[in-house]
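Trying the structure run again after the queue cleared.
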Amino acid sequence: MKINILKLFSIAILAVLFTMGVSCCKKDNNNNNNNKNSQGYGTIIFHMHTQFDTTEMATVSVPYGPGDPSMWGSVETGGRQIRLKFAQMEISQVRLNEGNSAAGPYYDIPDFSYVKSVDSEPYTISTHVPYNTYISPAYSIGLPADTNDLNPNSFPSGSYLGSNYLDMWTGNTSTGYWWIKFEGWVDTSQSGTDSAMCPFNFSISSANTPGNLPMQIVLPPRGSTAFPSYPPLNANNPSLTMHNIINYAYLFTGITLKGANRIQLSTLTNPSLATQIVKNATVVGPLGSKPTNHFIVYEE
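Done. Tokens:
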């Protein structure tokens, strides 16, 4: 059998070139990964201050608790006393504005949710956020459907959606979790000075929101003289804390308190009240605004 030397040589050359091409591709891919990793990652922390108008609940000796309402911490809003039993809300779908305006673009924090409570204010959102300049945060009050439809046994017991946080579970997968749960007692007398307090229950789930969707919170981009941009997240500044104020007193906006009764102040039995609470919970203040006029603002 005759062997075509020229043909074998050509095949050998092609094999070498193919091998070199594959090696080059692998090298380029590795370089791209190395370049991405070399940019580094930092930590984003939300410090969510819980207030009633201008009073920070962290300064109240007994913020909330079970048992006798007279033992609960009390504050005033609009001249009316409120005793707080429970105040929590679910936060998820955190996004960070990495653009130059409110339009973004945004960097999405994947698979994250937590319960904002009175007795805990700083929350580590992620320790793996790419180095960049972020001018504002955005997030949802509530949970996406694929998470909200699961029961607490689907999550680790110590997680925010697990069995340790059953107070935020509605009891069935049709409604899932409470997205806002705010309970206590409020003075509903004509004068606003009566020691007799009326119980209120502002519990909001997916059943109360338009389209059963989470409530979207988008804070305005920073960059003014009074509100300068956040420092860049980088190797010299590997951790960035964003401060928000949650003013629970604002949830009473638009609600008639004088002469209210137990039925009127429960979203469980009063759908129109639930609609008003959802409306109030999405009021975000512009830069420089005071918490007394909004549910969520930046801390100055």
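Residues 40-298 form one domain. Worth checking whether this holds up in the mutant runs.
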